[in-house]
Design brief:
Elements: H1 8-12, H2 20-24, H3 32-39, E1 94-100, H4 115-124, E2 127-134, H5 137-149, E3 158-162, H6 163-172, H7 191-194, E4 205-218, H8 219-222, H9 226-229, H10 234-239, E5 247-250, H11 253-263, H12 273-288, E6 292-296, H13 301-305, E7 311-315, H14 316-322, E8 327-330, E9 336-344, H15 352-362, H16 365-375, H17 384-388, H18 405-408, E10 411-412, H19 419-433
Parallel strand pairs: 1-2, 1-3, 5-6, 5-7, 9-10
Antiparallel strand pairs: 3-9, 4-7, 4-8, 4-9
Length: 434
C-alpha cells in the first residue's frame, strides 16, 4: 500500500485532521455517528464509511483464477467453495464478528454499548463477540490469508468486506456458501442488492451497507453555486483549467478507473482491455497536467472542507455526514458508481449457523433502518423506508440514504474480474497513482 492510500488505522492516528465542518455538527445537529467519532475520541476516521479505505488487491496467486488475458472479462469458472468447519452453533451461542471501525450503531450515552448487538442477544440468546479489526481490505486479507490457505479456522465466523475483495475471496475458495434456509429475509433484498457481479445470487454474502461513489464539491473553492455544481461532469473535474490543482481523486483502482471509464464513454460494468487502458490514459493525462492535486484513500474530507479541493471523488455516507451547506454532493453527468460492503462467512468457521441467524436479523427492516440511520448508507432490504418513519423521518428525504429510482439509475456496478485480470489492472493503475 502506498503512502497516499493509507489504511484506516493510520488515519485514526491523524486526529488533528478532524474537519471543522464535522465539529460544527456537535452543537446539536450531530448525527449519532458523529457523536461517536468526536465524543468517544475515535478521530476523523470514525466519520468515514468503511469503503473509504478500499485499497489495491494483492497479487497472490490462487487456484481457480482465470487467465483473463487481453479480455478484461469477469471470471466464468465456478468458484471454489470454502470448506465447512465443525459447526458448534448448537452448543456455543456465540458469533465472532470482524467489522470496520465505527460501522455499527452505538448508544450515545455509553460508547461500549451497541444496541443492535444487544437486541440480537436478547432475541436469540447468541452473544456477538464484536471486533473492529478491519482497517482495510488488504490489511485484513493479510491477517486471514495464511490460515485459510493452510486449511485452518481463522477464529472468525462473520466478517464485513468490500465488493471487490468478496469477489477475490470467493474465487480463492475462502468463503463458505450460505444456507439460505437460515436467512429467509434474503428474499426481501432490493433488486439492486440481490444479484451482484462479485457474488451472483448472493450465494456467499448478505449486504451490510450500500453506497455511491460520487463527487463532493466545495462551492466557495470551486466558485460555483449549488445549481451550477449539479451540472458538473467527470470531464470537467479532470480537464477544466479552473480546477487545476484542486481535484482529489481516489487511488483505489475500481473507483478511480470506474470514473475514467464513465468519462471516456465506456460502461464500468462491461468493458474491454482497450477501454480500460483508454480510461487509465485519460487519468494519466489529468495527472500530467497537474489537474489532480492528490490521489487519496480515506483522507479526503479535510481537504474538501477547508477548500484545498474544489471537488473530489467521495463516498456518499461521508458527504451525508458533513452538514455544511458549502459542501454539496453531485452525481456527475456521466453517472456514478455503486459499492457495497458485505457480511460473509470464512471457510472452516465454527459458528456458521449462528452467523447466518445474525445475517437474517440484520435484514429485518427495523434493524437495517436503524443501522443505516446511524452510518448514513443505503439499506439493502425492502421495508426499511417504512421502518424509518418511526426512527428518523428526516432520513427518508436524504437521497444518499433513500435514493429514488432516478438517482439509482445513474449508478453503475464495476465489472467483476478474475484474479489475474484484477491484479493486472491494479498494477496498471498504480503506475498512474504512484
Amino acid at each position: 500500500m502506498n503512502d497516499i492510500s493509507r489504511s484506516r488505522e493510520e488515519f485514526l492516528d491523524s486526529a488533528d485532521r478532524f474537519p471543522e465542518a464535522f465539529k460544527r455538527q456537535l452543537g446539536g445537529g450531530a448525527s449519532r455517528r458523529g457523536f461517536l467519532a468526536a465524543g468517544a475520541g475515535l478521530g476523523a476516521a470514525g466519520l468515514l464509511g468503511a469503503c473509504a479505505t478500499k485499497t489495491k488487491s494483492g497479487s497472490a496467486a490462487a487456484p481457480g483464477s482465470g487467465s483473463g488475458a487481453g479480455s478484461g472479462s469477469s471470471s466464468s469458472a465456478a468458484p471454489l467453495e470454502g470448506k465447512a468447519g465443525t459447526d458448534k452453533s448448537d452448543t456455543e451461542k456465540i458469533v465472532n464478528f470482524s467489522n470496520w471501525v465505527s460501522y455499527i450503531d452505538v448508544d450515545p450515552k455509553d460508547k461500549n454499548k451497541r444496541p443492535t448487538l444487544d437486541t440480537f442477544k436478547t432475541e436469540t440468546g447468541i452473544t456477538v463477540n464484536y471486533t473492529e479489526d478491519v482497517n482495510s481490505n488488504d490489511d485484513f486479507f493479510a491477517k486471514i490469508h495464511q490460515q485459510l490457505a493452510a486449511g485452518q479456522d481463522t477464529g472468525r465466523d462473520l466478517m464485513v468486506l468490500s465488493d471487490w475483495m468478496i469477489g477475490k475471496l470467493r474465487q480463492m475458495g475462502y468463503l463458505e456458501p450460505l444456507n439460505l434456509a437460515n436467512i429467509p429475509n434474503s428474499k426481501d433484498l432490493l433488486p439492486e442488492a440481490a444479484n451482484p457481479a462479485y457474488d451472483p445470487n448472493r450465494k456467499h454474502t448478505v449486504p451490510w451497507a450500500l453506497g455511491f461513489t460520487l463527487v463532493g464539491v466545495n462551492l466557495k473553492s470551486a466558485g460555483l453555486t449549488a445549481a451550477q455544481a449539479q451540472q458538473l461532469s467527470i470531464k470537467d473535474m479532470l480537464t477544466d483549467a479552473k480546477y487545476k490543482g484542486k481535484v482529489g481523486y481516489f487511488a483505489e483502482m475500481e473507483d478511480g478507473v470506474g470514473f475514467g471509464l464513465l468519462a471516456t464513454g465506456a460502461d464500468p460494468s462491461k468493458f474491454t482491455d482497450d477501454q480500460f487502458s483508454a480510461a487509465v490514459a485519460y487519468i494519466q493525462k489529468a495527472r500530467d497536467n497537474n489537474q489532480i492535486r492528490q490521489f487519496t484513500g480515506n483522507d479526503y474530507i479535510n481537504d474538501l472542507t477547508n477548500g484545498n479541493y474544489a471537488m473530489c471523488m467521495a463516498y456518499s455516507g461521508d458527504i451525508a455526514q458533513i452538514g455544511d451547506p458549502n459542501i454539496v454532493w453531485v452525481v456527475p453527468s456521466e453517472g456514478m458508481l455503486w459499492f457495497a460492503d458485505n457480511m460473509c462467512v470464512p471457510a472452516l468457521a465454527s459458528h456458521k449457523t449462528n452467523a447466518e441467524k445474525f445475517m437474517n436479523y440484520m435484514l429485518e427492516p427495523k434493524v437495517g433502518a436503524g443501522l443505516d440511520d446511524f452510518i448514513s448508507y443505503i439499506p439493502s432490504m425492502q421495508g426499511a423506508d417504512t421502518a424509518m418513519q418511526a426512527i428518523d423521518k428526516n432520513a427518508l428525504q436524504n437521497q444518499l440514504i433513500f435514493p429514488d429510482a432516478a438517482t439509482k439509475a445513474k449508478a453503475h456496478e464495476f465489472q467483476n474480474l478474475d484474479l489475474k485480470t484484477l491484479d493486472k489492472y491494479v498494477s496498471q493503475f498504480k503506475d498512474v497513482t504512484g
